[in-house]
Design goal:
Blueprint (H helix, E strand, L loop, with lengths): L1 E7 L11 E2 L2 H11 L3 E5 L8 H10 L3 E6 L2 H6 L8 H19 L5 E3 L12 H21 L4 E3 L13 H9 L6 E6 H7 L3 H7 L4 E6 L14 H10 L5 E4 L7 H16 L3
Parallel strand pairs: 1-2, 1-3, 1-9, 3-4, 4-5, 5-6, 6-7, 7-8, 8-9
Helix pairs in contact: 4-5, 8-9, 9-10
Bound molecules: manganese (II) ion (MN).
Length: 272
Amino acid sequence: MRCSATVCLVGSLSSGPWIYWHDLEAACADASSIGLDGIELFTESADQVPADELRTLLDRHQLELAAVGTGAGKVFHGLSLTDPDADRRAQAVEFIRGMISFGASFGAPAIIGSMQGGVPRGGDREEVLAWLGEGLEACGRTAADLGVTLIYEPLNRYESNLLNTQADACAFLETCAAPAVRTLADLFHMNIEEVSLPDALRDHASHIGHVHFADSNRRPPGDGHTNFGAIGEALREVGYDGWVSAEAFPWPDPAAAARRTYETFREWIAER
Ligand SMILES: [Mn+2]
């Protein structure tokens, strides 16, 4: 398993759960000095950071790109894979494809979180899920063609009314023709939705392609009441070998949050 931390380069999202902010070079330098293996990047668009510039920074600091977020499509353009308007859904797929392609040049997957949208009041849930399936299939084909996975993130009930648990997300993916699509096990969302985090990680291990690492209160791992010992045990037991990526508030500040994250990873999660 490898440990990374989120870096957000979108100024207008300044209250979000991101370890690092604004300054990509400073974030890379700090992450590397702590011992993190990579960064997860949240940008406004697929071309906000030129690929050669990012490659130079990652190489200089011996980091990998863990994943890229697609939420800017929702934040800036109001796009989602479940928009009732077919043209808007097509634009959402195009936006995500741009992000998939950006990530793929670093071997990193794109994550679909808020871009999944939801069922509007009075909407037809089956129809909305069919749109989600079509979108994941279309984006999943692009990911497969580029040799990367695509990560679908079940969100907690306060953020989406589509699929909230690992069980529901995995059962849904099994109905889609989207073999490159994996689920994201976000420990904050799971703390709200799952009966048992370790059991959910064990039961759905074959689908899980990425882990978001945060404590029960979205603070850095170690600053809430989540039992990371049991989570680490489950992840090691199932042989999870992907990223454990900190998506947590920069509490009390980014550098301290990153250090706390890495200490918790080393103490409870990493292979021993
Ligand atoms: Mn997440």
